[in-house]
Amino acid sequence: MIPFEYKDVHIEAIGRGGIETCYIFPRFQIAFDTGRSPDTLVDIPRIFLTHGHLDHAAGLPYYISQRSLKHLPPPEIYCPSEIVEPLTQILKLWQKMEGFEYEIQLKGIAVHDEVNIQKDLRVRALAAHHRVPARGYAIIRKSKKLKAEFLSRSGREIQKMKERGEDIFEERDIPLFAFSGDSTIEFLMENEEARQATVLFHECTYIDDKRPVSRAREWGHTHLDEILENEALFQNEKIVLTHFSKRYTRRFIHQVLEKKIKNKEFLKRIFILAHDN
Known about the structure:
The chain is of the alpha/beta class. The protein contains ten helices and 15 strands. The strands form two sheets. Strands 1, 2, 3, 4, 5, 6, 7 and 14 form an eight-stranded mixed beta sheet that branches. It has a seven-stranded mixed beta sheet with strand order 8-9-10-11-12-13-15. A hairpin with a 2-residue loop joins strand 8 and strand 9. The longest helix has 15 residues, at 84-98. The chain is globular. The two termini are 13 Å apart.
């Protein structure tokens, strides 16, 4: 796994296109996708699946079984609503083969649905565009901000208004992290949460001319050229490019990005989450 740190949040990440994808947030006790179920995933009680392809979800039965063996509480598993029924059938077959019943909370999630994960944090499902039913996700923090019309007031005035119980604050949603899962570039175009997230994890399966944009779109993926064409949309402090095709080495990815990205300030904001083959 590749560790990724941003401010006070630690993430354990695997992002290998067609092989394995899993992002674990120990602090929030959640994960996005299971990959092949790395050991550290088993202790995480809540999983959000982006879609049902094996490189993102194959580890689910093993993860559930291992939690049972460790006598851990049943996990909460969220997935696109369209795949609840087939996924339930798959898990029933695994239970039959293993000879015991899993305790499972499998819940379908639709675009814009939200799940509370901490007092001020929730996960919101976002629209994604892949070859199969898919969701992206954003971790949202609810925050109170002073209304714009009171920004020029002094601290003493604000305190008096608070004491009088005046309505001077408004609640705002702050997207901290967003994940595209497997999706075309429309994930970025259609989801404000993705564009404004402090940290965006966006797939970048193809990066060179051997696999052109048309090929990426045909298979429900994003090409580096599309990311560069939409550079102005990325308002994020950090952009984590991930899910690179296994045909690319980490060194080759760095070489291509340094060559193609002319805006060096944009390049500084990019973290390449790539594995050695």
